[in-house]
Amino acid sequence: MKPYPLLILLLTMTLNAFSKPAIVSAQPVNNSYILYIIILLVILGGLCIVVYVMFKKNPEIEDSPSDPLWNNKFLHDYSDDVFYLMQDAWKLRDLSPVRHLMTEEMVNTYESHFNQMIEQGEVNKIKLIEIHEIQIIPDHSGNEEMHQSYTAIIDGSMVDAGFNEFTGEAIYNGDLELDYFRDFYHFVRVEERWLLEFIDKKSLVHKVIGENIHQEKNEKHK
User: Fold this and answer.
1) Main-chain phi, psi angles of 166, to 5 degrees
2) 65 found inside a domain
3) pLDDT at 38 exceeding the cut of 70
4) Are residues 93 and 191 in the same domain?
5) Which of the two ends of the chain, N or C, has the fewest CB atoms closer than 10 A to its terminal CB?
6) How far apart are CA 215 and CA 205, in angstroms?
7) In this structure, what CATH number is given to the domain that contains residue 116?
8) CA atoms within 13 A on the CB side of 177
9) How far is CA 197 from CA 78, 107, 152, in A?
């Protein structure tokens, strides 16, 4: 979504509206004209807030010369690898590709979920995976020492659908529509390794209103 053209248009309209009384004779300004100015100012302010939120960046980590595991590029590439391995695990309903990169608690949680999927005959079809951006955010909350945990904010798109392998019926997204997502992968440092601790997942539903607009909605954890 690119709000700049609309922002410039509204700014121009507002300036023209303010200059109008000086051009016209000294006639009294009616209530409808004042309301018009107020509406323009409110819309202009709202768009300024939207632009700020859209382009505000989260504070990424600062590389540590003395700590090779606290390096933005390394953590970016590592998070990218773990993300794709997790998608393989979902398709296989098997943690073998990523088990060694997860905490024990997360392994137990996902194994239980995958076993339930197998019993119910639920399979995932995942394809056209594309990561658009990864941000590496430090997380010092609850840690006495620095460089012990971080969050990878992963924005991207994929086709993610669920089917019953016994009946062939669709469980969700039977039309195989492309979905936009934002995943929060939380990692914790254990014995000089980064282990995936948990995942928060959101979905961005793609809509078209003049331009492409992504509207966030909560979706199941994955």
Assistant:
1) -85, -40
2) no
3) yes
4) yes
5) N
6) 6
7) 3.10.450.240
8) 12
9) 14, 9, 12
Q: Whose CA is closest to 103, among 188, 171, 161, 165?
A: 188
Residues 182 and 77 occupy one common structural domain: yes
**Cα three-residue angle 197-198-202, rounded to 5 degrees:** 155
Q: 17 near 40, Cβ under 8 Å?
A: yes
Question: 218 pairs with which residues across the strands?
Answer: 202
pLDDT digits (tens, 9 = 90+) for 206-216: 332 222 323 33
Instruction: Classify residue 115: in a domain, yes or no.
Output: yes
Is the alpha carbon torsion for 159, 162, 164, 168 positive or negative? Answer: negative
Strand bridging mode 170-172 / 149-164: antiparallel
Q: Facing residues of 136 across strands? A: 152
- pTM of this structure: 0.65
Query: Does any domain span residue 207?
Result: yes
67 falls within a domain? no
Task: Tell whether the torsion through CA atoms of 23, 28, 31 and 35 is positive or negative.
Answer: positive
- 130-185 per-position pLDDT tens digit: 999 999 998 765 444 678 999 999 999 999 999 999 999 999 999 999 999 999 99
pLDDT at residue 195, rounded to an integer: 97
Domain that holds residue 156: 72-218
Of the two residues 50 and 48, the one the predictor is more confident about is 48
**Of the candidates 198, 155, 211, 151, the residue with the CA atom closest to the CA atom of residue 179:** 155
Alpha helices in the chain (DSSP H): 4-23, 31-55, 72-92, 104-120
